[in-house]
Specification:
The complex is a heterotrimer. By secondary structure, chain A is mainly alpha-helical. Chain A is built from 3 helices and no strands. Chain A has a single domain (2-115), classed as Methane Monooxygenase Hydroxylase, Chain G, domain 1 (Up-down Bundle). Chain C is mostly helical. Chain C has 13 helices and 2 strands, in the order H-H-H-H-E-E-H-H-H-H-H-H-H-H-H. In chain C, strand 1 (102-105) and strand 2 form a beta hairpin. Classes of the chains: A mainly alpha, B mainly alpha, C mainly alpha.
């Protein structure tokens, strides 16, 4: 735990810096919130409608695949350090096989996504 | 010891308040951001328990992936209607209240009875052994790839099911391919985007041009 | 035992490394503009101060004194918090970066704030948190350009996070430790850039994409979506996004040096090993920063579909192949 004191100090410094610069700017800056500058920027024309709405479902798929691969990586980090520390060849081979099976199963998901065109962003619509 | 208690008090108070905010705040985005605060403070508690690996994984998976997925979904969908009304899930309440009471009673019982943690309850990895192995990740690896080999591989199958499930759900049933969105770049440039559509319309994509 | 000196040294080290966050943009924005100018046969900034050296400082003061308004239709709280979610992780990541070896000044002092045994995961965790800045900024601005920029940025950053993690795995198979100090120590005889050349490529490309820099700067592609997720930001809040971007670029460069280019290792002058080591580290990191600017001047911006396809169809398989090759190569090693 003592090792994490430095982390806490840097986090506090980060917050202090943000607070300091925001307060400094707050003291310096003018405040005239009127007119068109409060509108969202849409290349100079008056904004049409609201920004919220429904968007491309593909973004969701990318996020979902990211979660899956992220969790896979989390399993592989301890595997990598453990693998590096094995002295005996047979242990190493066994661990390698374990990883191979683990990755191979996930590659099925990857192949499925590939075939279904999840990575094709410009499929002719 | 006292500095640990100070740290724990801070972490538990903030985590509890943020946890309450997660379920009480109306805006789904505020709720998700409160959840991020909870995740960070729980990660802090893992650090206090001497498990830096679990803390990092907690942040990587929950804050970095799961809540990002939540926020992403909220951005992709139009959630304004849900921000103004308070939804009560009536059926869930009948299950949720007894479970909450049970959980609370369980925690209270442990807190009151203060069970002595005996030596053999501490498991095969006392702090000293973990230090010798180089850290909690290495200690975890030694058991995960031997005793818990099957769950490790099954986790991969679970991830596979999750990935394929998401892709099947996102498919447009009428078409072979995915629910086909307009071209991204065109969409960014177009002015006839999502916003003109009447609220609550259940069309699949924001715009049908392109 | 921990005494008063240890606490003082820790605070000094933390302050010293924290200085990087506000100073990095001051130096690198100017360096970038000068280098870009030179590559494009221009002079670059040359009016403020001698040789234009004070240009970024003047820009910073200008930004600080500018009106800074919050879009009334947006979400005030989230809009306010978004830049903080960029700057604080960028500052925290520096806690585990070792800029030099352990030196002897009265007592043994490691030239790093803290040496966590999960350091590399700690940095990857902070990197995964950095995605909240664009998400919050884009969502709370209630602007279409901001929202599109935010969606693009998030999808891009999370995709390239995977490839970065896969690239790191190759190094971990060699080191068997997450500690950055250990990783540097293990490269005393050979930089990991040599056996991990594919990993290095994957890491660098992912790092450039993670920091939203050219040729992967689609979230801010000014010809398409103006400035992307921070289009509604102005004044100091905009400056904070800028600051975090440059601090993160420097961080990715430093991390690449630590993981692949031997960190502080290099020929040292006897007597001042500590100083020369730090100079080596800085030299290598600055060289990688130059690569960042060079790429920006040389390569055109990718299209979004190319960007995503490059990550998922090319970089990710390449990273996994690299991991398998590394594992096979290490199979016979004892």
């Amino acid at each position: 735990m003592p090792a994490y004191v430095g982390v806490v100090i840097l986090a506090l410094l980060g917050f202090a810096f943000c607070a300091g610069s925001l307060v400094g700017a707050w003291l310096l800056r003018p405040r005239r919130p009127v007119g068109a500058k409060l509108d969202p920027y849409e290349s100079g024309v008056p904004p049409i409608g609201d920004a919220k709405g429904r968007h491309v479902v593909r973004f969701y798929l990318v996020a979902m695949l990211f979660v899956v691969f992220d969790v896979e990586l989390v399993f592989l980090y301890p595997w990598a350090v453990h693998y590096a520390e094995q002295g005996v060849f047979s242990d190493r081979l066994f661990l390698f096989g374990e990883m191979l099976v683990f990755v191979a199963i996930l590659l099925v998901a990857y192949a499925y996504a590939f075939k279904k065109g999840v990575f094709e962003w410009n499929r002719g619509d | 010891m006292t500095d640990q208690i100070v740290a724990f008090t801070y972490l538990s108070i903030v985590a509890s308040v943020a946890g309450l905010a997660t379920i009480l705040v109306r805006s789904p985005v505020h709720s998700a951001l409160s959840l991020v605060v909870v995740v960070f403070h729980v990660a802090g508690m893992f650090v206090l328990l001497g498990n830096g690996f679990l803390a990092a994984v907690q942040v990587i998976v929950y804050a970095g992936a799961i809540v990002v997925l939540f926020l992403f979904t909220m951005m992709l969908l139009d959630l304004r209607r849900h921000e103004t009304e308070r939804t009560v899930h009536r059926r869930q309440i009948w299950l949720a209240i007894p479970i909450a009471v049970l959980l609370f009673a369980e925690v209270a019982w442990i807190a009151i009875s203060k069970p002595e943690i005996s030596e053999n309850l501490k498991g095969a990895f006392p702090p000293q052994t973990i230090d010798e192995l180089g850290g909690s990740a290495q200690a975890l690896a030694t058991v995960m790839f031997t005793d818990y080999l099957l769950p490790f591989e099954v986790a991969s199958v679970l991830l596979l099911a999750a990935a394929i499930g998401a892709m099947v759900l996102a498919r447009n049933p009428d078409e072979e391919s995915l629910a086909s969105p307009p071209d991204m770049i065109e969409d960014a440039a177009g002015t006839d985007g999502s916003s003109d559509q009447p609220e609550g319309e259940l069309s699949e994509t924001p715009a049908t041009h392109g | 035992m921990v005494d008063g000196w240890d606490v003082l040294i820790l605070v000094i080290k933390a302050l010293a490394i924290f200085i990087i966050v506000p100073v990095a943009p001051l130096v690198f924005v100017l360096a970038e503009r000068k280098i870009l100018g030179r590559i494009q046969s221009r002079i670059g900034p040359n009016r403020v101060g001698p040789w234009g050296l004070l240009q970024t400082l003047a820009d910073g003061i200008k930004l600080g004194a500018k009106e800074d308004f919050i879009p009334p239709a947006g979400d005030r709280v989230v809009f306010w918090l978004a830049p903080l979610f960029m700057v604080v992780p960028a500052a925290m990541a520096w806690a585990v970066i070792p800029i030099g070896p352990e030196v002897e000044i009265g007592r043994k002092i490691g030239l790093w704030v803290t040496d966590l045994n999960v350091a590399i995961l700690y940095i990857l965790a902070l990197g995964s948190v950095a995605v909240y800045g664009p998400v919050m900024a884009g969502w709370s601005s209630n602007s279409k350009y901001a929202l599109f920029g935010s969606l693009r940025s998030t999808a891009q950053v999370i995709s390239y996070e995977i490839t970065m993690g896969v690239a790191v795995l190759g190094v971990l198979v060699y080191t068997g430790s997450f500690s950055l100090v250990d990783i540097v120590e293990k490269q005393k005889d050979m930089w990991f850039a040599i056996p991990q050349v594919i990993g290095l490529f994957v890491f660098l490309v992912s790092g450039i994409a993670e920091t939203n820099r050219a040729p992967f700067d689609l979230p801010e592609a000014e010809t398409e979506i103006v400035a992307g997720y921070h289009v509604e930001y102005s004044g100091m809040r905009f400056a904070m996004f800028f600051l975090a971007e440059y601090a993160n670029m420097f961080l990715v460069s430093a991390l690449a040096v630590i993981l692949f280019f031997g960190g502080w290792h290099g020929w040292t002058i006897p007597g001042i090993e500590g100083l020369t080591s730090v100079l080596w580290f800085m030299l290598k990191t600055l060289a990688l920063m130059f690569v960042y600017f060079w790429l920006r001047a040389t390569l055109p911006r990718l299209r979004y579909d190319q960007l995503m396809a490059f990550c998922w169809k090319f970089l990710l398989p390449l990273g996994i192949v690299n991991l398998l090759i590394t594992a096979v190569l290490r199979l016979g090693w004892s």
